[in-house]
Specification:
CATH class of one domain: Mainly Beta
Strand order of the largest sheet: 3-2-7-8-9
Number of helices: 9
Bound molecules: fe (ii) ion
CATH superfamily of one domain: Aromatic compound dioxygenase
Structural class: alpha+beta
Helix content: 25-40%
Largest sheet: 5 strands, mixed
Length: about 325
């Protein structure tokens, strides 16, 4: 690119009052309507943040050092930026905006940093945890559409920690995937498996995000939960989790993932259900087992997109902005 030929609007007189419009003008050649809009609003809010807080150079430097530390601790299996987004409530907010759910469907929640693509595809009834210290759990679920019809052949990803509160990827000596699997729903929409009862665990807090939590007097714990992700063409992808009602951290999740509709009871496993799903050997230890039942409801892609567009335009109209939907996302309506 010949930089001398680049046409940019003239900018002059940089001061606290003009820097924002000058910066936005310099970025205005961006040919993509959506990224141009997002960048414009980012600069606007970033500058307003500095103006409103009267940000000092020392504080600006502290912020840069913090973000640098967040980046430096990231590895292939440690995603500190997702953790930062989670503890600031941004992950939950973005999921709620991008995957709106009608009342009759299952709500989404944070993905978290521990989903992998390593899970083995297993058949119904598989025990997904190798942890012998965990309390055994039978999980029986259905997946349906908003009209109550079972959905078959949905790819379901499931992941949970071991009994010590660690995901497999957090063990340096791990031997293949553990506490996670992928499975497909049957013709009746049912999928079921054996696992261990989830436990509460702290998010990794030996890095900059942990220091931040300590600094604002927050604990790093997540209430006991099990993650689920649902994928089938034609349906809005659902990333969610279910949470143990009696967990001590149920009302103070470090990453804001808990929603009332996702709180569940782990019940004692009854003999009749055990007889249908457990081996004779497993049934000898019936009293140790718990049962989790949950019915998931997926929204069609079309319904989710319609709801997302309507929510976006209504929210922006309330802010006095005239917008249109472009490639499924709002941009200024300047025509
Ligand atoms: Fe988790």
């Amino acid at each position: 690119m010949d930089f001398s030929q680049v046409k940019l609007p003239p900018i002059m007189d940089m001061n606290a009052d003009t820097i924002t419009e000058n910066t936005i003008a310099m970025n205005s050649g961006n040919p993509d309507l959506r990224s141009k809009y997002v960048l414009e609003r980012l600069v606007h809010h970033l500058h307003d943040f500095a103006r409103e807080t009267r940000l000092s150079t020392a504080e600006w430097s502290q912020g840069i050092q913090f973000l640098t530390a967040v980046g430096q601790i990231c590895t292939d299996v440690r995603q500190e930026f997702i953790l930062l987004s989670d503890v600031l409530g941004l992950s939950l907010l973005v999921d709620a905006i991008d995957h709106p759910k009608p009342a009759a469907s299952t709500e989404g929640t944070v993905l978290g940093p521990f989903h992998t693509h390593e899970a083995e595809l297993v058949t119904p009834g598989t025990q997904i945890s190798k942890d012998e210290n965990g309390e055994p759990l039978l999980v029986i679920c259905t997946v349906k559409d908003t009209n109550g019809r079972p959905i078959d052949d949905v790819m379901v990803d499931i992941w949970e920690t071991d009994s010590g509160g660690f995901y497999d990827v957090q063990h340096a000596d791990k031997d293949g995937p553990d506490g996670r699997c992928a499975m497909r729903s049957g013709e009746d929409g049912v999928f079921w498996f054996k696992a261990i009862k989830p436990v509460s665990y702290p998010i990794p807090h030996d890095g900059p995000v942990g220091k931040f939590l300590m600094g604002v007097h927050r604990h790093p714990y997540r209430p006991a939960h099990m993650h689920f992700m649902f994928d089938k063409p034609g349906f809005d992808k659902l990333t969610t989790a279910v949470y143990d009602r009696i967990d001590p951290y149920i009302t103070s999740d470090a990453v804001f993932g808990v929603k009332d509709s996702l709180v569940v009871d782990f019940l004692p496993l009854d003999a009749a259900t055990a007889a249908q799903h457990l081996t004779e050997e497993e049934q000898k230890n019936l009293s140790a087992w718990s049962l989790l039942k949950y019915d998931f409801v997926l929204v069609s892609e079309k319904e989710a997109a319609g709801l997302r567009d309507a929510n976006s335009l209504a929210a922006l109209e309330a802010l006095g902005k005239r917008m249109k939907v472009y490639n499924g996302l709002p941009v200024p309506d300047v025509d």
